[in-house]
Amino acid sequence: MMPMNAIFKITEVFKSFLLEIGELSFFAARFFRESFKRPVEFKEFLRQCYNMGNRSLLLVAVTGFIIGLVFTLQSRPTLQEFGAVSWMPSMVSISIIREIGPIITALICAGRIGSGIGAELGSMRVTEQIDAMEVSGTNPFKYLVVTRIMATTFMLPILVFFGDAIALFGSYLVENVKGNVSFLLYFNQVFNALEFGDLMPATIKTFFFGFAIGLVGCFKGYYCKKGTAGVGVAANSAVVFTSMLLFIIDFIAVFVTDIFYDL
Amino acid sequence: MSTTIPNNKPIIEIKDLRKSYGDNHVLNGFHMELNEGENLVIMGKSGSGKSVMIKCLIGLERPDSGTIEVMGETIAELSRTALDELRTEIGFLFQGSALYDSMTVRENLEFPLRRHTKKFGVLKDTTPLVMEALESVGLAHAVNLMPAELSGGMKRRIALARTLILQPKIILYDEPTTGLDPITAKEILILMKSIQDKYNTSAIIITHDVDCARVISNRMILLVDGINYAEGTFEELSKYADPKVQAFFK
Predict the structure, then answer these.
(1) Which InterPro entries does the UniProt entry name for this protein (chain B) (predicted)?
(2) Is the CB of B85 inside 8 Å of chain A's CB atoms?
(3) Nearest C-alpha of chain B: how many angstroms from A131?
(4) Closest CA–CA distance from residue A28 to any residue of chain B (Å)
């Protein structure tokens, strides 16, 4: 029989998880409310887009390239065994465009951008910079949170496209070296294998991924607890919570896609 | 003692202010009035509720009960927009300066300025106002520096310039001299006095620095356990026989 204090602990953890989900929902609702209010902080939005895109570009490129390369190298012997190596470009393109590209890029951005937002806003909270904005009669939520969530939502699909392209290029390099396949032939097969039903749902879900990264990062940072330890916790929990949320969104996205496109 | 003579027209009135965090009762019926042109020093030990009171006053914290009236407006009844407009009349100098560390000194000063078009109109060139505020604190040369490049005293001065740029009628100082060396602390006090003379502001100064209270105060309130324990001028309070009061002046 399970001891009572273990049951109590599990209940407490579950209760705090539900509370956090509730607070996050209120935070998201506030984001939508504030998004339509004036003034529009367009300059800050562009600055955030540039920072997020520019800072993540190299990481996304390197990861995408290695994923494409390794994925092709690992799959090749199995396909060769069945004499289906000519299916390699189709298989790689569908896997990368539908699933691997979006989720890997989103996870990298959760680590890179989500933790960065959590730490930045957390440190602003701890050093009373957010309070200073508030008392000067400006709306810190609009300036700091709305712009960042919008920027992640807008930039993640672009980063995913970029990451996908690099991953496919990595895969092509392996095929070129091992199978002497030309660039034109490889990418011809890649695009022949792709359909609207592969590209569209994958693109739509990246907007949700981006939104989740910005939302959780901002939520954790904005309500960061006092002290430098609080900043560390905010950055860390932003990554953990976002990563979990990304898989949940992905799971839902696959179900919804299945309804419309019959996977 | 400050040179500006206060009149008896209250611009801030706090009545029966109470605030608790769980079982921790921080404010237990605090009350005060700030008159126009007056420098009111509120002294108390750490954790006596000074900062909580000032945060309730500016609307950063919501009190459990009691009323706060600033320039005839009841804080609790104001809409977000009305509160933001009122906040342009109240400057707040944070203990840690709270400069925006991703912005230059100029951007720090421009930030509130560009967002209050109702008070200042749409400003195409903010340079004259920025420079005037920086000259008031003697740091015009620091306009393009980042906060990380400034010393503690310079940060405090820039924060003061950022407070002044909105041309407030009231300035709230939260521990203005804490963490500064005695010479810089004295410079900040002289600056606070000169600002009051130049802009005719009223001020609430939260401190536990007796020298600061002696130099700047017109009147003082000693805050003990969330209530007004003693009230009077620096000279009056320093002569009190009560050991709790004397503890502040030793």
Answers:
(1) AAA+_ATPase, ABC_transporter-like_ATP-bd, ABC_transporter-like_CS, P-loop_NTPase
(2) yes
(3) 7
(4) 19
In a domain, A1, yes or no: no
Selecting from B85, B98, B100 the residue whose C-beta is nearest the C-beta of A137 gives: B85
Could you list the residue range(s) of the whole structural domain that residue A155 is in? 57-262
Residues 34-53 of A with CB under 8 A from B: 39
B145: left (phi over 0), alpha (psi -120 to 50) or beta: beta
CATH class, range B9-89+168-176+198-250: alpha beta
Amino acid letter for position B183: I
B174: left (phi over 0), alpha (psi -120 to 50) or beta: beta
Are A27 and A149 spatial neighbours (Cβ–Cβ below 8 Å)?
no
ipTM for the assembly:
0.86
Which of B55, B70, B100, B116 should we substitute to test contact with A (largest number of A Cβ atoms within 10 Å)? B100
Return phi, psi of residue A177, to 5°. Answer: -75, -45
From chain A, pick out residues whose CB is under 8 angstroms from the CB of B83. Answer: 137
Q: Hey, where are the domains in chain B? A: 9-89+168-176+198-250, 98-167
Name beta bridge partners: B35: B10
**Residue A28 covered by a domain:** no
Q: Tell me the shortest Cα–Cα distance from B41 to chain A, in angstroms.
A: 20
Q: Is A3 exposed, middle or buried (0-12, 13-18, 19+ CB in 10 A)?
A: exposed
Segment B194-215, tens digit of pLDDT: 888 888 899 999 988 888 899 8
Answer whether B58 touches A (CB < 8 Å).
yes
Residue of A nearest to B95 (CA): A128
Tally of structural domains, chain A: 1
Measure Cα distances from B48 to A66, B27, B69 in Å: 59, 8, 22
In a domain, A5, yes or no: no
In a domain, A48, yes or no: no
